[in-house]
Specification:
The complex is a heterodimer. Chain A has 15 helices and twelve strands. Chain A is α/β, with parallel strands linked by helices. In chain A, a hairpin with a 5-residue loop joins strand 4 and strand 5. In chain A, helix 1 packs antiparallel against helix 2. The relative contact order of chain A is 0.10. About 9% of the residues of chain A have low confidence. Chain B has two domains: 62 residues, no CATH class; 221 residues, Orthogonal Bundle (MetI-like fold). The chains are: A alpha/beta, B mainly alpha. Bound molecules: adenosine-5'-diphosphate, iron/sulfur cluster and magnesium ion.
Chain lengths: 445, 325
């Protein structure tokens, strides 16, 4: 033994019973060094892990910071409910926002991802109206902020996402209006699923792989109806399964034992469990093949007519949306760039982006259109072009486009052939500035 | 059913390979170990033992196939030969004496540290971003400590200096082993110090693994959906996040069960504990080949059994593995 290593010192110390003779200095330092070195290496490893795995990272400090910032934001702009109000009898808000047929009113909603110094604005001042019993379709390329919006409406957004401004007003069947952003945790837990439920983008990921699908429907009922007996709950689960078109003897199946379409039906059954007024569906059919898509969409429409709930249907497939929606909003780079009645979108999409979207997909039924599509790729939200965010890809871009960001403003509408009252339309594009100005003048007169 | 049969076949083949290796190893030792050993024992070994020794090292006149058949026959009759160092005690007797101590101490501690470690890990993952993150550097440090060093320090401080705990053995000599309070109390007292050393130094491993899995699982859509449905925190923690996060830890746990026997050497040497590890240590020092061979056999069986347990646990906890079963 000519060279002294830490391990060697330990070995000799033990052999010559250094401890027994009280010669602890032979023994303690090398072990401590090894331990500290080991700790240092593991902590480096740990740091690398946190860095590489965004889930570990975002779950850490961001949770606290995000919560604090959210609290500050809400103190600044969003009113909070004070005190607990009993379920289903939530506080009334400004009567000005309550309109008879409006069930959900979204006003200037802003959702940011990340730190205060460099936030990514994934939803940028979105205002939308959902009416009772209707389908509001939201379309846009992937990355346009649709899912972020869906999570924000249900307040299921996770850090680093936070709602930094806006208002969400829900009007229940009893005519009472609730400020959803002001609900406290208890009220929110009651509100979600009773009034508003959601179907996630991927049924495979949204179902717990180790729990029978029946149990995953049942525990939603159990959480909200503690008084219900086990037998009643089981009966309700079977009823829901039949409702969405799965034979009731599949309650004991595990998610992996079901096909993609069946899993999506289970998701819908879960969303229906408490008979909510609104269901948000985030690309519920995207992962499915066309035939199954068709079946699921028809199922949703049938259930909607039967049960009377309203739907916010999100997809990147505008042609599908036109067939099933009452109203449509088009999102680009976190903003709504066009809204209008579904039938108007089919005959005359106004915004160049909507025209491009419609050209991107063949309609499920009806004549095939030429696929013109949209050139380029979705924008990087951290580096949006000046002025109109769409201008780098827009075939009609002209002088004002790089200078000014066009606001979403109403455009004139025409009575359709049946003489029905025209549905309001709005578009955010400089091509319509003159019409919009004329309309505003007309309204002012 | 087909998958199950395939598993069984896999275990049988692995066991066969390991046992055959155990047969071949002594035969691969270069030189003439038998003569060297006989010299060392100065004629204390009886003729039976000498014959057994020659048999063990393949120095009989039989061809290797006959030797192999003979080896299996003895194995199936539970005959591992006679130990040299404690001649003429049969190897099975020595193993039989040591095994309960090892299983009792290290087995219980392995299970305990897995349960406590994953439990704490689940909690720390659930409460991430709060003060509980302070657990991480502390447990990392405890895990990084060289184990025998930690054991010796513990022995020195608590057994030599403070004299709170006994220095060695499994129970106070003179007590009659059996179900009486004196004996059991003594066993617990003797096991306490090594238990603490084992649990403290291995708990961090489970804690960190479970914490990371927990955080990854908590960001799964199905956990978010569980929250959205309004489930109680307890139900989300157990049935949605916890059980899914636990699955990857199970394989590691099964392996550690398999290493109870093989990994017991350090603990039992440091704490002078009368288990299999201590017997193996003595067998290596005394070149007691029959005893070594017997213990290696036990280790093989333990590892395979542990893997079987892991497979079964998986089938119970993860329905996806039940497909086609
Ligand atoms: N976890 C996240 N952290 C930071 N930015 C994100 C995160 N998730 C989404 N984003 C940003 O939000 C934008 C909108 O994403 P998303 O709402 O998922 O769009 P969509 O559902 O329309 O495909 C993305 O382009 C991305 O830049
Ligand atoms: S504002 Fe200009 S760039 Fe933007 S969509 Fe209209 S025409 Fe195209
Ligand atoms: Mg999406």
């Amino acid at each position: 033994m000519t060279e002294w290593s830490w391990g060697g010192i330990l070995y000799w110390a033990q052999n010559s019973s250094a401890l027994a003779f009280g010669a602890w200095w032979w023994f303690v330092p090398p072990g401590l060094c090894i331990a500290l070195l080991g700790t240092a290496l593991s902590l480096i490893n740990f740091g690398i892990d946190e860095f590489i795995n965004p889930r570990l990272r975002s779950a850490g400090i961001a949770t606290r910071k995000g919560a604090k910032r959210a609290a500050r934001a809400s103190a600044a702009g969003i009113r909070r409910a004070t005190g607990r109000t009993p379920r289903r009898a939530l506080r009334r808000t400004d009567a000005a926002f309550t309109r008879g047929d409006v069930i959900l009113q979204i006003n200037d909603l802003v959702v940011d991802y990340g730190s205060a110094d460099q936030p990514v604005r994934a939803v940028d001042g979105v205002s939308l109206t959902l009416r009772r019993g209707q389908v509001l379709g939201i379309a846009g390329e992937s990355g346009s902020g649709k899912s972020t919006l869906a999570y924000a409406i249900t307040r299921l957004h996770q850090p680093p996402a936070q709602i930094t401004a806006g208002q969400l007003l829900y009007t229940g069947r009893d005519g009472e209006t609730v400020d959803v952003l002001a609900l406290d945790d208890r009220e929110l837990t009651d509100f979600r699923w009773e009034e508003l439920s959601i179907v996630f983008q991927s049924a495979m990921n949204a179902l717990n792989p180790i729990l029978r699908v029946g149990a995953q429907i049942e525990d939603a009922i159990e959480a909200h109806r503690p008084g219900m007996s086990g037998e009643e709950r089981a009966e309700r689960v079977r009823e829901l399964m039949r409702l969405v078109g799965i034979s009731a003897d599949r309650v004991g199946a595990y998610p992996h034992e079901l096909s993609g379409g069946m899993r999506q039906r289970v998701m819908i059954a879960i969303a229906l469990a408490l008979d909510p007024e609104i269901i948000i569906m985030d690309e519920p059919t995207t992962a499915l093949d066309v035939v199954i898509q068709r079946q699921i969409v028809e199922k949703i429409m049938e259930l909607k007519d039967r049960l009377g709930f309203s739907v916010i249907f999100i997809t990147h497939d505008l042609s599908m949306l036109i067939e099933l929606s009452d109203e449509i909003a088009i999102m680009y780079a976190g903003r709504v760039v066009e809204t209008g009645a579904a039938r108007d979108f089919y005959s005359s999409p106004q915004h160049p982006y909507s025209q491009g979207l419609l050209g991107s997909f063949p309609t499920l039924s009806g004549p095939k259109k030429t696929l013109t599509g949209i050139v380029g790729s979705p924008p990087d939200l951290r580096a949006l072009p000046s002025g109109c965010p769409f201008r780098t890809r827009c075939p009609h871009a002209f002088e004002p486009c790089p200078v000014e960001d066009p606001p979403l403003l109403p455009i004139p509408t025409v009575r359709d052939a049946d003489g029905d009252a025209p549905a309001p339309r709005a578009v955010a594009c400089h091509l319509y500035t003159a019409q919009q100005a004329a309309l505003a003048e007309g309204a002012a007169v | 059913m087909k998958g199950f049969l395939r598993r069984v076949a896999f275990y049988l083949i692995t066991a066969w390979a390991a046992i055959t290796l155990n047969f071949l190893l002594p035969r691969l030792i270069p030189g003439d170990p038998v003569t060297r050993m006989l010299d060392r024992f100065h004629g204390q070994l009886g003729p039976n033992a000498v014959f057994a020794l020659r048999k063990l090292f393949g120095q009989t006149s039989d061809n290797i196939w006959d030797q192999y058949v003979d080896y299996w026959t003895r194995l199936l009759h539970g005959d591992f030969g006679v130990s040299f160092t404690s001649y003429p005690t049969p190897v099975t007797t020595i193993i039989g004496q040591g095994l309960p101590w090892t299983l009792g101490l290290i087995g219980v501690c392995t299970v305990l540290s897995f349960i406590i470690g994953t439990g704490l890990g689940a909690f720390v993952g659930w409460k991430r971003g709060t003060w509980v993150d302070g657990f991480i550097p502390v447990t990392t440090f405890l895990t990084s400590i060289p184990y025998f060093w930690f054991g010796l320090i513990v022995v020195y401080v608590f057994a030599v200096v403070l004299r709170w705990f006994p220095l060695s053995g499994g129970y106070t000599p003179g007590l009659t082993p059996g179900f009486n309070t004196d004996f059991i109390g003594s066993v617990v007292l003797h096991a306490l110090l090594p238990s603490i050393a084992i649990i403290v130094s291995s708990i961090g491993y489970w804690l960190l693994g479970m914490r990371n899995m927990m955080i990854t699982t908590l960001s799964e859509d199905y956990v978010l959906l569980a929250r959205a449905k309004g489930l109680s925190a307890r139900r989300i923690l157990s049935t949605y996040a916890g059980r899914n996060a636990l699955l990857p830890s199970l394989a590691g746990f099964a392996l550690s069960l398999g290493f109870i026997v093989g990994g017991s050497i350090i603990t039992e040497v440091v704490f002078n504990y009368p288990g299999i590890g201590y017997a193996l240590f003595q067998a290596v020092q005394g070149q007691d080949y029959p005893l070594m061979q017997g213990i290696f056999f036990i280790i093989t069986i333990a590892v395979l059994a542990a893997n079987l347990v892991a497979d079964l646990l998986y089938v119970i906890l993860d329905p996806r593995t039940r497909q086609g079963a």
